[in-house]
Structure formats: C-alpha cells, structure tokens
Design goal:
heterodimer; A: 172 residues; 8 helices; B: 198 residues; mainly alpha; Arc Repressor Mutant, subunit A; 2 domains
Chain lengths: 172, 198
C-alpha cells in the first residue's frame, strides 16, 4: 500500500484505482512471445553468399546476378535524357557550342551510368539475357564486357563527332 | 539447481534461469507480468489488438536482451520502462488520444467493437456490488483515458502498480519533479472528471 500524499477528496478515487482489475491478453500470448525469442529458436541456416555466388556462376550465372528493376532503369534513363536536354540547351544558348557536341559531351561526362544501363539493355537484346547474365557474373568476362562497351561508346562518340564535323564543313 | 515450480522464486532468480536459456523461466516471467504490462498498455492506447502487439513487442525486446538485465534494479521496473517507451512511441506515431471503453477508437462496426473490447475478470462480488463496481470502474477507466498519455502512465504506475515517485521517474525517464507534477495534475483532472459520479 502506498502512503497517502494526496488530499482526502482523492482517497476514494485512489481506492478505486487500486481496485482496477488487470486485463488479460489472448491465451496464446505467451506462445507468440516465446516464438519471438531468438535464443529459444532452433538455429537458422545462413546462406554462404560468397560460396553460392561462385557456385551459381558455374550454373549459368543466372542467379548470381541481381535482377535489375525495370522501372529504375526507365526512370534513370528518363532523368538522364531530361538532364542532357537541359545542359545541351544551356550550352547551345549561352555558349557557342553546336547542339550535337553539347548533347554528347553532357551525356558522356554526366550520365555515364544511364548510358551504361542503356548499353546493357541493348546488349541484352542483341546477345541474349543469358549471355549478359553470365558476363556480368564473371569478373574477367565483366571486364571484357565493360571494355567493349567503353570502346564502343568512345568509338561511337568519335564517329558521330567526325560525321558532324564533315556535315558542318559541307554545309559551310 | 533447477526448480520444479517457480512459485517462491524471486524475479532476479527466474531471470538467472532465463539467462541460462531455460524456456520455463521465460514462460514464468511472461506469466508473472503479461497482465500488468498488457493492462498498462491497454489503458494507454485503448485498443486490444494494438495493446497485444505492443505488449508482445515489449516482452520480446526485454527477453531477447535478458543478458543485459542488471539485478540491482527491479525486473518489473525494467519491463514497465520498455513497455512505456514502446507505447509512447506508438502514441506519438498514431496520435491516439480519444478512446472508448467499449472498444477501439477506430471501431466503426459493432463486430469490430466487440472484437477490440476487453473482458474484465470479475472479482467474485455480488451482482449489485459488481454492477456498482463496474460502473465506477468504467467511469475511472474513461476518466483515465481522458488524461494525457504521460499522465496516464504516471498515475497508473503510482496508484495501480504502487511504484514510488523515484521508480516512476526511472521508468518514464523524466525528472522527479516532472513526475510529481504530472501525478498532481492527473489527480486534479481525475477529480474533476469524476465529480458527478461519486
């Protein structure tokens, strides 16, 4: 019993508060709590991530590659396109740079990820998703793929730029 | 040594058995405190399902960290402290201030109200006494529910659980002076709410 530290008016309320009954949770409450106590659960297996990745590479590399989120790529591509357009417009308006150079420069310097993503999608269409997955999962193969993509990117950029110069000269 | 029954075993000793990984010790701690903890939480959130979830979360958190228990403190104080923290966090998230003794505040159908209402165990009184007691008890429950959540926790811990001001300050993590002020104001408000009932 607690000692009185309140006035007489509160005495009946205090008495009533002490008489308030305890309320009971559901009958299976204890079982549900026990089910949540880690120490009382049988050991759960943890997937050996590094080992499984290597093993899956031999199985075609399909599962070792985390599936890309289609929406994420689309959104990134959309944002990149909008950004490139803005930078190109600014470059065209405020500096005496031709539109094509501005677009390509902006794209290669600022939006390499989006270009790589688009390249991977195109590669997936051309080479097939299995090949792409295998290449992405293997270290050597991935380096080769990325080198091919980089060479293709810079080669393509150079070719387009040269064509643009030729067209410009002819027009002049 | 492992006891056949935990009847005369102190909380501290049961905790030691639980720390050794004994399931019956865990169950004993749940059995001892499920009703006080559930009652405290229910009187703060006024929803049976939510109270069960929060009480469950409290026990799981405490019992998963049983190795961190410091025996110089009362086990029940530690348990109530976690229960209070979890409940206050929930109330801050949900802003549940209005209540109904008959069921959850969001109980829009009779079925939902029945499902969320709590059955109060009878104390073995005569029907008339029980009715009077239930009327006054219900009035007190409603009055408690009108208090601010911080006041509710303090007044319940003081008058229902018999904790000292110092212990309450430790449980609710507030300065002693603030706890005294909260309890004083809670008493005043309860007196006002119950003016016409007594």
């Amino acid at each position: 019993m607690i000692e009185h530290d309140f006035d007489e008016e509160f005495v009946p309320i205090a008495a009533e508060l002490q008489r308030l009954p305890y309320l009971s949770p559901s009958r299976d409450f204890a079982d549900r709590v026990i089910a949540g106590i880690d120490r009382l659960q049988p050991a759960r297996g943890v997937a050996p991530v590094l080992a499984s990745r290597h093993l899956e590479l031999h199985q075609g590399g399909q599962q070792a590659v985390i599936p890309r989120r289609r929406m994420g790529v689309m959104r990134a591509t959309g944002r990149a396109t909008a950004g490139v357009a803005l930078i190109a417009a600014a470059a065209f308006m405020f500096f005496e740079v031709d539109v094509l150079t501005a677009i390509l420069a902006a794209a290669t310097t600022q939006y390499a990820f989006a270009i790589a993503a688009v390249g991977a999608q195109v590669g997936s269409m051309v080479l097939g998703p299995e090949t792409i997955a295998y290449l992405q999962a293997g270290a050597v193969q991935a380096v080769l793929l990325y080198m091919t993509l980089a060479v293709g990117l810079f080669g393509g950029y150079g070719a387009i730029r040269t064509a643009a110069h030729i067209a410009k000269r002819k027009a002049a | 040594m492992t006891p056949k029954s935990y009847t005369d075993v102190s909380d501290q000793q049961v905790v030691v058995f639980a720390q050794e990984g004994r399931e019956d010790a865990y169950r004993e701690l749940i059995k001892r405190y499920e009703r006080p903890v559930f009652s405290l939480i229910f009187r703060m959130v006024r929803d049976k399902e939510t109270s069960e979830d929060l009480a469950q979360e409290t026990f799981i958190k405490v019992l998963n960290n049983i190795d961190r228990y410091r025996p110089e403190f009362k086990f029940s104080s530690w348990l109530f402290k976690i229960a209070n923290n979890i409940t206050i966090d929930h109330l801050r998230r949900r802003q549940l201030d209005t209540i109904s003794i008959e069921g959850a505040p969001d109980a829009i159908t009779a079925e939902r109200a029945r499902a969320t209402a709590v059955t109060v165990t009878s104390g073995g009184e005569s029907p008339l006494e029980e009715l009077e007691s239930r009327e006054l008890g219900a009035a007190i429950e409603k009055a408690i529910a009108k208090l601010r959540p911080e006041y509710r926790a303090c007044i319940i811990l003081r008058h229902v659980e018999d904790y000292s001001y110092d212990e309450i300050a430790e449980i609710v993590k507030l300065p002693l002076g603030t706890v005294k002020t909260y309890i004083h104001r809670a008493r005043q408000e309860l007196r006002e709410y119950l003016e016409g009932v007594r």
